[in-house]
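Residues pack. One example:


***
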Amino acid sequence: MRALLASLLLLLPFPAFACDIAEALIKHAYPDAVAADGGYTVKSSAYVRRIDPRAVACKTWPYRPELTLAAVPLSEAAPANEGEVRGDVEVMAVDTATGEPVARLVEEGMAFADAVQFDDVSLDTARYDLKPGLRAFGVKVTHSGSSRIFPYADEVLRLYTLQGATLVRVLDGLIVSVSTNENDGNCNGVGETTSRSITLGQPGRGGYRDLRIDEKRVAETTRDTGSDCESTSKPLPGRSHVLRFGGQGYEIPKGVKPEERLFDLGE
C-alpha cells in the first residue's frame, strides 16, 4: 500500500510551480477584483468567484517567449451547497512584456469539487506540434477523492492552440494518470495505477497529426503480515489508442475521459 499511497500523494496539490507574477497578472486580467482573505474576489453573472494567487499557474511559452501562458482557478467564494464548490479555470495567453491578456478562455466546471476534489492546475509546454506552424500547449488538472478506504487521484490533460487572438481547445480532457485503491482502512487492499503517454503520429484530417496514446498499468496488493505492511505489484496489459482530429478537436475514446471515471467512492 505504501507504494500506491506514494503515487496518490504525487497527484495531490503541491505548489511546486507557483506563478511569481500572479498578483500582477490578476490585476491586469481582473481590474475589478477586490482583495479579500489573502486572495481576490471577482463578480460574475452566476456567482462571486475567489482567486487564490498561490493556485495560479503561469509559464513563459518556449515556443513563443513573447507570450506567457496562465491558468487561473476561479472558485465559488461562498458555496451554496455543503461539500460542493463550483469552479472554473480561465486559460490565458498574456503579453510577457506588458502583462496584458492576448487571448483568454473560461473553462466552466474545470475546478468543480464535490466527492472528487479539484486540487491543482499546471501547464504543459511539451512540443505538441500538431501541424506545421501550429503547436499546442497543455493544461493539466489534478483531482483526488475524499474517501479513506477508496482513495482516488487523477490528472487530466487538455490541449489548446492559439489561433490569432483566440484560444481553441483541441483536446477536451484525457486522463493521463489515475490511481485507485480499495482497502480496509489499514493495510490490506488492492489498487491499480495507470499512466498514459502521447506520441505524435502521421498527419490526418486538416493536416493535424494523430495522437498515439500508450498505457502503462500496474496492479498492487497489500497485506498485513503482522509485523509489516507487505506490498506486491505486477504489470498489467496496457491498451493503445489513436486519437484523430475530427474537425473541431481530437476524438477521445471511451474509458479515458474525465466524465467517465469508473470507480466507487464508497461512503
About this structure: The radius of gyration is 20 Å. Helices lie at 2-9, 22-29. The chain is about 5% helix and 55% strand.
